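# nightly structure sweep
# worker-07 picked up a monomer target from the shared queue
# config: single-sequence mode, recycle default, output format = C-alpha cells
# input follows
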Amino acid sequence: MRIWSLHPAHLDRAALVACWRETLLAQAVLAGRTKGYTRHPQLERFRAQSDPLGSVGAYLSAVADEADARGYRFDRTRILRPGPAAVRIPVTDGQLALEWQHLGAKLDQRSPADAVRWRAATPSAHPLFAVVPGPVEAWERASTV
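# output follows
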C-alpha cells in the first residue's frame, strides 16, 4: 500500500489509480469495515489524527480532484467523509524526498513520458500535508528506491 505524500499531480495514471484504490482500502480499515491491513504502517499518520476518517476523506477528495482535472471518473460517493481537512498533517521533507525518488524510479520503468515530466518538476506535497524538516518518517518501510 502506498498512500503518497506527494501531490497527486505528480503521479502518473497508474500511480493515481492505485493510490485511489489503496486509500479507499485504508478508509475501510479506519472505518472498521475490513479485517485486513489493520496494522499497515501507512495508516499511522491517519490514526494519529483526532478525526481519522475526516483526514482520509480529505486525502481522497484531493486525489479525486486530480482525477477530475485529467478527465477520469473516480466515484466520489465512495468517500465516507469528503471535503477539506480541518487540520493538515505534518510530513517530513525527508519522507517527501524518498517518495520523490521512489516515484521517479517507477516512472523510468513504466512511463517514460511521465519520467521526463517528473525530471522537470519540483516535488510538492499532497494538500493534506504540511512539509516540515526531518528524516524519513518512522512508519516508512521502504529502505531504498
